[in-house]
Amino acid sequence: MKIYQQTIQLRERRRGFHLITNEVVHALPEIAGIQTGICQVFIQHTSASLTINENADPTVRQDFEMYFNKVVPENDPDYRHDDEGPDDMPAHLKAAMLGSSVTIPIAGGRLALGMWQGIYLCEHRNYGGGRKLVVTAWGV
Question: What domains are there in the chain, each with its CATH number?
Answer without folding.
Answer: 2-139 (2.60.120.460)
